[in-house]
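Thread amino acids onto this structure.
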Protein backbone atom coordinates (compact mmCIF):
# COMPACT_ATOMS: atom_id res chain seq x y z
CA UNK A 1 0.00 0.00 0.00
CA UNK A 2 2.82 2.42 0.88
CA UNK A 3 4.61 1.67 -2.39
CA UNK A 4 1.41 2.34 -4.30
CA UNK A 5 1.04 5.72 -2.61
CA UNK A 6 4.66 6.68 -3.32
CA UNK A 7 4.68 5.65 -6.97
CA UNK A 8 5.63 8.40 -9.42
CA UNK A 9 3.07 9.63 -11.97
CA UNK A 10 4.89 7.67 -14.66
CA UNK A 11 4.25 4.48 -12.75
CA UNK A 12 0.53 5.12 -12.43
CA UNK A 13 -2.24 3.56 -14.47
CA UNK A 14 -1.52 0.08 -15.75
CA UNK A 15 1.31 -0.63 -13.30
CA UNK A 16 -0.80 0.26 -10.26
CA UNK A 17 -3.72 -1.74 -11.59
CA UNK A 18 -1.43 -4.74 -12.03
CA UNK A 19 -0.26 -4.48 -8.42
CA UNK A 20 -3.82 -4.21 -7.13
CA UNK A 21 -4.86 -7.20 -9.22
CA UNK A 22 -2.07 -9.17 -7.60
CA UNK A 23 -3.77 -8.65 -4.22
CA UNK A 24 -7.06 -9.83 -5.71
CA UNK A 25 -5.35 -12.92 -7.10
CA UNK A 26 -3.52 -13.69 -3.85
CA UNK A 27 -6.68 -13.38 -1.79
CA UNK A 28 -8.75 -15.50 -4.14
CA UNK A 29 -6.05 -18.14 -4.64
CA UNK A 30 -5.51 -18.55 -0.88
CA UNK A 31 -9.20 -18.46 0.03
CA UNK A 32 -10.94 -21.57 1.27
CA UNK A 33 -13.81 -20.66 -1.06
CA UNK A 34 -11.90 -22.03 -4.05
CA UNK A 35 -12.08 -20.91 -7.65
CA UNK A 36 -15.87 -21.31 -7.80
CA UNK A 37 -16.33 -18.80 -5.02
CA UNK A 38 -15.40 -15.79 -7.17
CA UNK A 39 -17.50 -15.90 -10.36
CA UNK A 40 -16.91 -12.29 -11.41
CA UNK A 41 -13.91 -10.03 -11.73
CA UNK A 42 -10.48 -10.49 -13.30
CA UNK A 43 -9.04 -13.81 -14.38
CA UNK A 44 -6.21 -15.20 -12.27
CA UNK A 45 -2.79 -13.72 -13.02
CA UNK A 46 -1.07 -17.08 -12.64
CA UNK A 47 1.37 -15.55 -10.16
CA UNK A 48 0.76 -18.24 -7.53
CA UNK A 49 1.22 -21.96 -7.98
CA UNK A 50 -1.33 -22.94 -5.34
CA UNK A 51 -3.26 -21.75 -2.27
CA UNK A 52 -0.31 -22.16 0.11
CA UNK A 53 2.01 -20.01 -2.01
CA UNK A 54 -0.66 -17.30 -2.21
CA UNK A 55 -1.23 -17.54 1.53
CA UNK A 56 2.48 -17.15 2.19
CA UNK A 57 2.57 -14.04 0.00
CA UNK A 58 -0.33 -12.52 1.96
CA UNK A 59 1.38 -13.35 5.26
CA UNK A 60 4.46 -11.44 4.10
CA UNK A 61 2.28 -8.44 3.20
CA UNK A 62 0.15 -8.63 6.35
CA UNK A 63 0.80 -5.14 7.71
CA UNK A 64 -0.45 -3.51 4.50
CA UNK A 65 -3.50 -5.61 3.64
CA UNK A 66 -6.32 -3.52 5.10
CA UNK A 67 -4.74 -0.33 3.72
CA UNK A 68 -4.67 -1.66 0.16
CA UNK A 69 -8.46 -1.44 -0.09
CA UNK A 70 -8.34 2.23 0.89
CA UNK A 71 -5.63 2.95 -1.66
CA UNK A 72 -7.63 1.27 -4.41
CA UNK A 73 -10.66 3.35 -3.46
CA UNK A 74 -8.56 6.51 -3.36
CA UNK A 75 -7.32 5.80 -6.88
CA UNK A 76 -10.91 5.56 -8.10
CA UNK A 77 -10.65 1.79 -8.61
CA UNK A 78 -14.06 0.91 -7.17
CA UNK A 79 -14.20 -2.62 -8.59
CA UNK A 80 -10.68 -3.47 -7.44
CA UNK A 81 -11.36 -2.12 -3.94
CA UNK A 82 -14.41 -4.38 -3.68
CA UNK A 83 -12.69 -7.43 -5.16
CA UNK A 84 -9.74 -7.07 -2.79
CA UNK A 85 -11.95 -6.68 0.28
CA UNK A 86 -14.00 -9.74 -0.69
CA UNK A 87 -10.92 -11.82 -1.53
CA UNK A 88 -9.18 -11.02 1.77
CA UNK A 89 -12.18 -11.84 3.99
CA UNK A 90 -11.29 -15.51 4.37
CA UNK A 91 -7.62 -14.68 5.04
CA UNK A 92 -8.58 -12.35 7.90
CA UNK A 93 -11.08 -14.87 9.31
CA UNK A 94 -8.59 -17.76 9.35
CA UNK A 95 -6.15 -15.64 11.36
CA UNK A 96 -8.74 -14.29 13.77
CA UNK A 97 -8.18 -10.73 12.51
CA UNK A 98 -11.84 -9.81 12.30
CA UNK A 99 -11.41 -6.09 12.99
CA UNK A 100 -9.08 -5.69 10.01
CA UNK A 101 -11.48 -7.61 7.80
CA UNK A 102 -14.33 -5.37 8.92
CA UNK A 103 -12.25 -2.24 8.25
CA UNK A 104 -11.49 -3.43 4.73
CA UNK A 105 -15.16 -4.18 4.04
CA UNK A 106 -16.39 -0.90 5.52
CA UNK A 107 -13.98 0.90 3.21
CA UNK A 108 -15.17 -1.10 0.20
CA UNK A 109 -18.93 -0.99 0.81
CA UNK A 110 -19.45 2.61 -0.45
CA UNK A 111 -17.45 1.65 -3.55
CA UNK A 112 -19.86 -1.19 -4.34
CA UNK A 113 -22.50 1.29 -5.46
CA UNK A 114 -20.02 2.72 -7.99
CA UNK A 115 -18.56 -0.60 -9.13
CA UNK A 116 -19.38 -2.06 -12.54
CA UNK A 117 -19.52 -5.52 -10.95
CA UNK A 118 -23.03 -5.45 -9.46
CA UNK A 119 -22.41 -8.71 -7.58
CA UNK A 120 -20.33 -6.72 -5.13
CA UNK A 121 -23.44 -5.06 -3.66
CA UNK A 122 -24.76 -8.27 -2.00
CA UNK A 123 -21.37 -10.02 -1.88
CA UNK A 124 -19.71 -7.51 0.45
CA UNK A 125 -22.72 -7.63 2.76
CA UNK A 126 -22.45 -11.41 2.87
CA UNK A 127 -18.78 -11.01 3.79
CA UNK A 128 -19.74 -8.55 6.53
CA UNK A 129 -22.25 -11.08 7.84
CA UNK A 130 -19.53 -13.73 8.00
CA UNK A 131 -17.41 -11.44 10.16
CA UNK A 132 -20.42 -10.78 12.39
CA UNK A 133 -20.79 -14.52 12.96
CA UNK A 134 -17.13 -14.88 13.93
CA UNK A 135 -17.30 -11.81 16.16
CA UNK A 136 -20.12 -13.37 18.16
CA UNK A 137 -22.85 -11.01 16.91
CA UNK A 138 -25.52 -13.34 15.43
CA UNK A 139 -28.35 -10.78 15.53
CA UNK A 140 -26.36 -8.16 13.61
CA UNK A 141 -25.04 -10.83 11.24
CA UNK A 142 -28.57 -12.07 10.54
CA UNK A 143 -29.72 -8.55 9.68
CA UNK A 144 -26.78 -8.11 7.29
CA UNK A 145 -27.45 -11.46 5.61
CA UNK A 146 -31.14 -10.55 5.29
CA UNK A 147 -30.14 -7.35 3.49
CA UNK A 148 -27.83 -9.35 1.21
CA UNK A 149 -30.69 -11.75 0.49
CA UNK A 150 -32.98 -8.95 -0.70
CA UNK A 151 -30.23 -7.43 -2.86
CA UNK A 152 -29.15 -10.76 -4.37
CA UNK A 153 -32.73 -11.63 -5.33
CA UNK A 154 -33.15 -8.20 -6.90
CA UNK A 155 -30.11 -8.96 -9.06
CA UNK A 156 -31.19 -12.59 -9.63
CA UNK A 157 -27.79 -13.69 -8.29
CA UNK A 158 -28.33 -17.29 -7.17
CA UNK A 159 -24.89 -17.73 -5.64
CA UNK A 160 -25.11 -14.71 -3.36
CA UNK A 161 -28.71 -15.67 -2.55
CA UNK A 162 -27.51 -19.11 -1.42
CA UNK A 163 -24.74 -17.55 0.66
CA UNK A 164 -27.19 -15.17 2.31
CA UNK A 165 -29.61 -18.00 3.13
CA UNK A 166 -26.78 -20.10 4.59
CA UNK A 167 -25.66 -17.07 6.59
CA UNK A 168 -29.15 -16.52 8.02
CA UNK A 169 -29.26 -20.17 9.07
CA UNK A 170 -25.81 -19.94 10.64
CA UNK A 171 -26.89 -16.88 12.61
CA UNK A 172 -29.97 -18.73 13.89
CA UNK A 173 -27.82 -21.71 14.85
CA UNK A 174 -25.33 -19.49 16.69
CA UNK A 175 -28.23 -17.84 18.52
CA UNK A 176 -29.23 -21.31 19.84
CA UNK A 177 -32.22 -21.59 17.51
CA UNK A 178 -31.32 -24.65 15.42
CA UNK A 179 -34.97 -25.27 14.55
CA UNK A 180 -35.10 -21.88 12.80
CA UNK A 181 -31.87 -22.65 10.94
CA UNK A 182 -33.29 -25.60 9.02
CA UNK A 183 -35.49 -23.83 6.45
CA UNK A 184 -33.00 -21.20 5.20
CA UNK A 185 -30.05 -23.61 5.17
CA UNK A 186 -32.02 -26.32 3.38
CA UNK A 187 -32.95 -23.73 0.74
CA UNK A 188 -29.28 -22.71 0.52
CA UNK A 189 -28.21 -26.33 -0.05
CA UNK A 190 -30.72 -26.77 -2.87
CA UNK A 191 -29.60 -23.56 -4.55
CA UNK A 192 -25.91 -24.33 -4.09
CA UNK A 193 -26.21 -27.79 -5.63
CA UNK A 194 -27.20 -26.13 -8.89
CA UNK A 195 -24.03 -24.02 -8.96
CA UNK A 196 -20.43 -24.99 -9.67
CA UNK A 197 -19.34 -24.05 -6.16
CA UNK A 198 -18.28 -27.04 -4.07
CA UNK A 199 -17.26 -24.88 -1.10
CA UNK A 200 -20.71 -23.34 -0.88
CA UNK A 201 -22.43 -26.74 -0.94
CA UNK A 202 -20.01 -28.10 1.68
CA UNK A 203 -20.42 -25.08 3.94
CA UNK A 204 -24.23 -25.12 3.78
CA UNK A 205 -24.36 -28.88 4.41
CA UNK A 206 -21.98 -28.46 7.34
CA UNK A 207 -24.31 -25.90 8.92
CA UNK A 208 -27.35 -28.08 8.20
CA UNK A 209 -25.66 -31.13 9.71
CA UNK A 210 -24.71 -29.17 12.82
CA UNK A 211 -28.31 -27.95 13.19
CA UNK A 212 -29.58 -31.53 12.93
CA UNK A 213 -27.05 -32.61 15.59
CA UNK A 214 -28.25 -29.86 17.93
CA UNK A 215 -31.80 -31.15 17.47
CA UNK A 216 -30.76 -34.73 18.25
CA UNK A 217 -31.31 -35.92 14.67
CA UNK A 218 -27.92 -37.62 14.45
CA UNK A 219 -28.43 -39.85 11.43
CA UNK A 220 -29.61 -36.90 9.33
CA UNK A 221 -26.65 -34.92 10.65
CA UNK A 222 -24.17 -37.58 9.57
CA UNK A 223 -25.73 -37.88 6.10
CA UNK A 224 -25.32 -34.13 5.60
CA UNK A 225 -21.77 -34.14 6.91
CA UNK A 226 -20.76 -37.13 4.80
CA UNK A 227 -21.84 -35.29 1.65
CA UNK A 228 -20.23 -32.10 2.95
CA UNK A 229 -16.91 -33.94 3.27
CA UNK A 230 -17.14 -35.21 -0.32
CA UNK A 231 -17.88 -31.70 -1.59
CA UNK A 232 -15.07 -30.22 0.50
CA UNK A 233 -12.63 -32.79 -0.91
CA UNK A 234 -13.68 -31.77 -4.42
CA UNK A 235 -12.99 -28.14 -3.52
CA UNK A 236 -9.58 -29.19 -2.23
CA UNK A 237 -9.04 -26.51 0.42
CA UNK A 238 -7.85 -27.76 3.84
CA UNK A 239 -9.94 -25.61 6.19
CA UNK A 240 -13.30 -26.66 4.78
CA UNK A 241 -12.28 -30.33 4.68
CA UNK A 242 -11.13 -30.07 8.30
CA UNK A 243 -14.34 -28.35 9.36
CA UNK A 244 -16.56 -31.05 7.86
CA UNK A 245 -14.47 -33.78 9.48
CA UNK A 246 -14.59 -32.03 12.87
CA UNK A 247 -18.36 -31.54 12.69
CA UNK A 248 -18.85 -35.23 11.89
CA UNK A 249 -16.46 -36.18 14.69
CA UNK A 250 -18.51 -34.11 17.13
CA UNK A 251 -21.56 -36.21 16.28
CA UNK A 252 -19.55 -39.40 16.86
CA UNK A 253 -18.24 -38.08 20.19
CA UNK A 254 -21.80 -37.42 21.31
CA UNK A 255 -22.70 -41.01 20.44
CA UNK A 256 -19.66 -42.41 22.28
CA UNK A 257 -18.02 -43.58 19.04
CA UNK A 258 -14.54 -42.51 20.08
CA UNK A 259 -12.56 -44.55 17.56
CA UNK A 260 -14.51 -43.09 14.63
CA UNK A 261 -14.13 -39.59 16.05
CA UNK A 262 -10.39 -40.02 16.60
CA UNK A 263 -9.79 -41.11 13.03
CA UNK A 264 -11.62 -38.07 11.67
CA UNK A 265 -10.01 -35.63 14.09
CA UNK A 266 -6.45 -36.78 13.41
CA UNK A 267 -6.89 -35.93 9.76
CA UNK A 268 -8.74 -32.70 10.55
CA UNK A 269 -5.96 -31.53 12.88
CA UNK A 270 -3.30 -32.11 10.23
CA UNK A 271 -5.27 -30.19 7.61
CA UNK A 272 -6.18 -27.20 9.74
CA UNK A 273 -2.59 -26.92 10.93
CA UNK A 274 -1.51 -26.54 7.30
CA UNK A 275 -4.13 -23.87 6.73
CA UNK A 276 -2.92 -21.77 9.68
CA UNK A 277 -6.36 -21.40 11.29
CA UNK A 278 -5.35 -21.05 14.96
CA UNK A 279 -8.80 -21.02 16.63
CA UNK A 280 -9.96 -24.06 14.66
CA UNK A 281 -6.66 -25.84 15.34
CA UNK A 282 -7.10 -25.35 19.10
CA UNK A 283 -10.66 -26.68 19.14
CA UNK A 284 -9.77 -29.63 16.88
CA UNK A 285 -6.83 -30.66 19.08
CA UNK A 286 -9.01 -30.49 22.19
CA UNK A 287 -11.73 -32.59 20.55
CA UNK A 288 -9.05 -35.12 19.62
CA UNK A 289 -8.03 -35.14 23.28
CA UNK A 290 -11.61 -35.98 24.24
CA UNK A 291 -11.59 -38.86 21.76
CA UNK A 292 -8.29 -40.15 23.18
CA UNK A 293 -9.72 -40.02 26.70
CA UNK A 294 -12.78 -41.94 25.55
CA UNK A 295 -10.47 -44.54 24.03
CA UNK A 296 -8.71 -44.95 27.38
CA UNK A 297 -5.59 -42.88 26.61
CA UNK A 298 -5.61 -40.16 29.30
CA UNK A 299 -1.94 -39.19 28.94
CA UNK A 300 -2.40 -38.56 25.22
CA UNK A 301 -5.55 -36.60 26.05
CA UNK A 302 -3.66 -34.42 28.53
CA UNK A 303 -0.97 -33.57 26.00
CA UNK A 304 -3.53 -32.64 23.36
CA UNK A 305 -5.60 -30.43 25.67
CA UNK A 306 -2.46 -28.65 26.89
CA UNK A 307 -1.34 -28.06 23.32
CA UNK A 308 -4.81 -26.77 22.41
CA UNK A 309 -4.74 -24.34 25.33
CA UNK A 310 -1.30 -23.06 24.34
CA UNK A 311 -2.45 -22.49 20.75
CA UNK A 312 -5.53 -20.61 21.88
CA UNK A 313 -3.58 -18.41 24.28
CA UNK A 314 -1.33 -17.29 21.42
CA UNK A 315 -4.29 -15.24 20.15
CA UNK A 316 -5.21 -11.78 21.37
CA UNK A 317 -8.54 -11.70 23.26
CA UNK A 318 -9.18 -8.37 21.53
CA UNK A 319 -9.15 -10.11 18.15
CA UNK A 320 -10.89 -13.38 19.06
CA UNK A 321 -14.24 -12.66 20.77
CA UNK A 322 -14.93 -16.38 21.21
CA UNK A 323 -11.68 -16.94 23.10
CA UNK A 324 -13.28 -17.04 26.57
CA UNK A 325 -15.86 -19.62 25.52
CA UNK A 326 -13.22 -21.74 23.79
CA UNK A 327 -10.84 -21.50 26.74
CA UNK A 328 -13.60 -22.51 29.15
CA UNK A 329 -14.35 -25.52 26.95
CA UNK A 330 -10.73 -26.61 26.60
CA UNK A 331 -9.97 -26.15 30.31
CA UNK A 332 -13.07 -28.16 31.19
CA UNK A 333 -11.87 -31.03 29.00
CA UNK A 334 -8.35 -30.70 30.44
CA UNK A 335 -9.83 -30.95 33.93
CA UNK A 336 -11.59 -34.18 32.98
CA UNK A 337 -8.34 -35.62 31.67
CA UNK A 338 -6.53 -34.71 34.92
CA UNK A 339 -9.30 -36.43 36.89
CA UNK A 340 -8.94 -39.55 34.76
CA UNK A 341 -5.27 -39.95 35.76
CA UNK A 342 -5.95 -39.21 39.43
CA UNK A 343 -4.49 -35.70 39.45
CA UNK A 344 -7.43 -34.28 41.37
CA UNK A 345 -5.74 -31.07 42.52
CA UNK A 346 -4.84 -30.04 38.95
CA UNK A 347 -8.31 -31.01 37.79
CA UNK A 348 -9.90 -28.80 40.42
CA UNK A 349 -7.66 -25.90 39.41
CA UNK A 350 -8.88 -26.13 35.82
CA UNK A 351 -12.55 -26.26 36.82
CA UNK A 352 -12.14 -23.32 39.21
CA UNK A 353 -10.40 -21.31 36.50
CA UNK A 354 -13.37 -21.92 34.21
CA UNK A 355 -15.83 -20.77 36.88
CA UNK A 356 -13.73 -17.70 37.72
CA UNK A 357 -14.08 -16.11 34.28
CA UNK A 358 -16.04 -12.85 34.75
CA UNK A 359 -18.45 -13.76 31.96
CA UNK A 360 -18.72 -17.49 32.76
CA UNK A 361 -22.47 -17.14 33.19
CA UNK A 362 -22.80 -16.26 29.51
CA UNK A 363 -21.73 -19.80 28.61
CA UNK A 364 -24.05 -22.09 30.62
CA UNK A 365 -22.99 -25.36 28.99
CA UNK A 366 -19.28 -24.81 29.72
CA UNK A 367 -20.07 -23.55 33.22
CA UNK A 368 -22.27 -26.56 34.02
CA UNK A 369 -19.55 -28.93 32.75
CA UNK A 370 -16.99 -27.30 35.06
CA UNK A 371 -19.36 -27.33 38.06
CA UNK A 372 -20.03 -31.03 37.60
CA UNK A 373 -16.31 -31.74 37.34
CA UNK A 374 -15.53 -29.71 40.46
CA UNK A 375 -18.20 -31.54 42.47
CA UNK A 376 -16.64 -34.85 41.45
CA UNK A 377 -13.23 -33.58 42.56
CA UNK A 378 -14.59 -32.52 45.94
CA UNK A 379 -16.18 -35.92 46.57
CA UNK A 380 -13.13 -37.92 45.44
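Threaded sequence (380 positions):
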Amino acid sequence: ARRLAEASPAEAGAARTAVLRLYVDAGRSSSDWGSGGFPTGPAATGAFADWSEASGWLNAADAELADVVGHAAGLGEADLACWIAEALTDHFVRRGRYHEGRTALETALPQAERADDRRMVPALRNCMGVLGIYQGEPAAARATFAEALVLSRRLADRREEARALAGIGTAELNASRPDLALAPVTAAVELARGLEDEWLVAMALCVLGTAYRALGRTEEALRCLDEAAVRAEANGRPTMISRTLSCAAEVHLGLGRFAEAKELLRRAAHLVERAGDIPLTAITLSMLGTAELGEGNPEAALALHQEALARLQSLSPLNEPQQTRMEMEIRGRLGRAYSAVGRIREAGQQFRTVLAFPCAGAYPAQRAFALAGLRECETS
